[in-house]
Amino acid sequence: MGSKNKLKRFKENETFANVIQPSRDEIISDKFSFKGQWNAQFFKNDKPIVLELGCGKGEYSVGLAKLFPEKNFIGIDIKGARFWRGAKTAIEEGLSNVGFLRSQIELIDHIFEENEVSEIWITFPDPQIKFKRTKHRLTNMEFLNKYRRILKPDGIMHLKTDSEFMHGYTLGLLHGLGEEVLYANHHVYRNEGSPKEVTSIQTFYEAQYLEQNKPITYIKFKLKQ
């Protein structure tokens, strides 16, 4: 994407009512007004809040919002030029139950209050295979503890990935910690019984992975409070 196009998208994001772009300082100084107030201030209802971390172009957040009108969805990514597409689509299609937040995921526990979130989706994250990159892996211990803090006691986690490494690493960690794995599948499109929200929504990159016959894996789990 050219820099001119990026700039245009950044400017358009500023006009979208469904996009929030706080500064890092605003978030870490705990002056972020939406923390603990997402239902009241942003969605203006009391529906359950579901996050998509690293939402990219926002296709999954938008797809989930269409599938589950009884829930609120927030796509989070540091790259606003990417989720511009999802935000624009949501506006064009009149979806009031989905919004987008430009932020780093490691700040998530400064953005949401304890027990404010009902579900978290992690879709096709970078598996960060190199050892020195493990601190950025979205299902490492540090991140799991952040999710644990903001999730409701019966909150649900979802991991959908094309990375067998990420799938195996996360399953191993969850079993080692004694967390509750509700469902795990190494190949959601080959095995029957996969949840509809896993197989009926495909991201741009997922479609490419499927063309290359890459298995898509999925884990649904709970974190002890």
Summarize the structure.
With 225 residues, the protein is of the alpha/beta class. The protein has helices at residues 3-15, 24-28, 38-43, 59-67, 80-92, 108-111, 141-150, 164-177, 196-199, 204-211; strands at 19-20, 49-53, 72-77, 98-102, 117-123, 151-161, 180-185, 217-222. Helices cover 38% and strands 21% of the residues.
Layout of SSEs?
Elements: H1 3-15, E1 19-20, H2 24-28, H3 38-43, E2 49-53, H4 59-67, E3 72-77, H5 80-92, E4 98-102, H6 108-111, E5 117-123, H7 141-150, E6 151-161, H8 164-177, E7 180-185, H9 196-199, H10 204-211, E8 217-222
Parallel strand pairs: 1-4, 2-3, 2-5, 3-4, 5-6
Antiparallel strand pairs: 6-8, 7-8
What does this structure look like?
This protein has 225 residues and is of the alpha/beta class. The protein has one domain (3-222): Rossmann fold. The chain is 38% helix and 21% strand. It contains 10 helices and 8 strands. It has an 8-stranded mixed β-sheet, with helices on both faces. Helix 1 (3-15) packs across helix 5. The radius of gyration is 17 Å and the shape is globular. The mean pLDDT is 94.
List keywords for this structure.
alpha/beta, eight-stranded mixed sheet, 225 residues
* Domains, number: 1
Q: What structural category do the secondary elements indicate? A: alpha/beta
Can you tell me the CATH architecture?
3-Layer(aba) Sandwich
Q: Largest sheet, order of strands side by side?
A: 1-4-3-2-5-6-8-7
Number of alpha- plus pi-helical segments: 10
Q: Which term fits the overall shape?
A: globular
Q: Determine the strand fraction and express it as a percent band.
A: 15-25%
Could you report the average pLDDT, rounded to the nearest whole number?
A: 94
- Report the uncertain regions: none
Radius of gyration: 17 Å
Oligomeric form of this entry?
Answer: single chain
Number of strands: 8
Largest sheet: 8 strands, mixed
Termini separation: 42 Å
